[in-house]
Design brief:
- The chain is globular, with a radius of gyration of 19 Å.
- The chain is 43% helix and 2% strand.
- The chain is mainly α.
- Strand 1 (123-126) and strand 2 form a beta hairpin.
- Helix 5 packs across helix 7.
- The protein has a two-stranded antiparallel sheet.
């Protein structure tokens, strides 16, 4: 299945990238192209085959193995791409759902069982002072757990609803989220700063985007923090927000979506229909892809070495995964 005409979203690529993506891409790329770029129905034989191939792919097997001991091992760095927390998010970002993961109910149950009395979902984190493992709700972890529960579990579960309410309660007046955490050091240091945190806000919006389109709790409020942060840097007036910048490193195309960078922000914000007319999203695409790539194929601008065995884990050759993710962003903007 390919498009019969040159669609508007293809213009930045210089040509239609879908034939190459379907031929060279991993199962998550083929599934995404069929479903998100070519509008294939769920019962299309090619979609069914791509879903089956995705479920059996070694990367998915690798992630599931890493999650077998959840919630161990304790998290030491919140940007550790190899940690089970980010393996869990990766499964969702690859397009996995509860039907493709037979062990999902057990995993989701274990995540929900660690909810605190306030509803927040907790992970095992090394205390920054003592290095002892503790069950804590961190603003960089709890939204990931919530988003995974919504994507892989039952959003109607009372514990998921409580976690959603806890997320909303912690929203700041500017619409974003701040480093509220159970470890006292977060409050004593960060409360000197009045603004919300870009990464906590990005993860929280990622979680809300897992809700169905008609769910009233699914809202893009908080996106202004991320859009204005980028715009200030684009005008060369930017400054770090909670140490996060939106300059050269931010603009490098990178996957998995572990930290604060342009493709991650674009992928999350373009899931909200109310934002699709915002010119700053198109400016983000232009900043990340200033020229049409050769043959419509895009290379990764930065990589996590933990994924060097996969196309998005090296910078030498064009990456079908990176190309597809950027194409999907453009398709949403041109819908």
């Amino acid at each position: 299945m390919t498009r019969s005409r040159f669609a508007p979203w293809m213009r930045p690529f210089g040509e239609d990238p879908t034939p190459w993506l379907l031929e060279a891409g991993a199962p998550w790329v083929r599934l995404g192209v069929l479903r998100d770029l070519l509008d294939a129905p769920p019962d299309d034989p090619a979609v069914v085959a791509a879903r089956e191939a995705l479920a059996a792919h070694p990367l998915v097997t690798e992630c599931r193995a890493a999650l077998a001991g959840w919630p161990e091992p304790p998290l030491r760095r919140h940007d550790d791409a190899k940690h089970p927390l980010h393996r869990l998010k990766l499964l969702v970002d690859l397009g996995l759902d509860r039907d493709l993961l037979p062990d999902t109910p057990r995993l989701v149950g274990r995540i929900l069982s660690m909810a605190g009395t306030d509803g927040q979902l907790r992970s095992v984190v090394c205390d920054p002072e003592t290095q002892e493992p503790q069950r804590l709700a961190f603003p960089c972890d709890a939204p990931i757990l919530l988003g995974a529960v919504l994507a892989l579990g039952d959003p109607a579960d009372p514990r998921a609803a409580a976690a959603l309410e806890a997320l909303e309660v912690r929203r700041e007046r500017d619409g974003g989220w701040f480093c509220h955490g159970e470890w006292h050091g977060l409050e004593t240091h960060w409360r000197q700063r009045p603004e919300s945190c870009p990464i906590a806000t990005l993860y929280s919006l990622w979680a809300l985007a897992r809700l169905p389109a008609g769910d009233p709790r699914r809202a893009d409020r908080g996106a202004e923090l991320l859009l204005s942060h980028f715009q200030a840097y684009d005008r060369r007036e930017g400054r770090p927000v909670c140490y996060f910048q939106a300059g050269k490193r931010f603009r490098r195309l990178k996957f998995p979506f572990v930290w604060y960078d342009v493709l991650h922000v674009l992928d999350v914000l373009t899931r909200f229909e109310g934002l699709l007319g915002d010119r700053r999203l198109r400016a983000m695409v232009d900043a990340a892809l200033p020229e049409a790539p050769r043959g419509g194929r895009v290379k990764a601008g930065s990589v996590f070495t933990a994924y060097k065995a996969y196309d998005f884990g090296q910078k030498r050759e064009p990456s079908p995964t990176i190309t597809f993710l950027l194409a999907r962003v453009l398709r949403r903007l041109d819908a």
